[in-house]
Amino acid sequence: MSAFAPVQQSPKHERRAHPRHAVSHRGLIAFEDGSEQVACRLVNLSEGGALVQVNDSKALPRLVSLFYDRLDEHLPEVATAWCMVVRREPNRAALRFLHVVA
User: Fold this and answer.
1) Which terminus of the chain, N or C, has fewer Cβ atoms within 10 Å?
2) d(Cα 40, Cα 78) in Å, to the nearest integer?
């Protein structure tokens, strides 16, 4: 059984290439230059990216690494994704996966 379920959204408004799955898992964002790490919570996840909850999305640089815990029995213990921040809300950031290492 999977630990996440698809996010329900009207097909006419969906522009994403990959379906999103609602999750609530802890993660860690590392800045590109290695200067800082920020705790986060994954809100949704897809093959192409993730939405994360953070204290202040404005503090995130454009390129980050995302580390997150195993989500179900089909995924590795920890995954790492090299990401680009593509959208910011005050306490959330949308990340596009550029490269994922399981």
Assistant:
1) N
2) 15
Q: Is 45 exposed, middle or buried (0-12, 13-18, 19+ CB in 10 A)?
A: buried
Mean pLDDT, all residues of the chain: 82
Q: Domain with 79 in it: what CATH number?
A: 2.40.10.220
Position 78 in a domain: yes
Instruction: Characterize the bridge pairing of strands 78-89 and 92-101.
Output: antiparallel
Domain that includes residue 31, residue range: 19-101
The answer for residues whose C-beta is within 8 angstroms of residue 35's C-beta and 6 or more apart is: none
For 56-89, the pLDDT digits (tens) are 999 999 999 999 876 655 555 668 899 999 999 9
In a domain, 4, yes or no: no
Asked if 38 and 28 count as a contact pair (C-beta separation under 8 A), the reply is yes
Nearest to 60, CA basis, from 100, 78, 87: 87
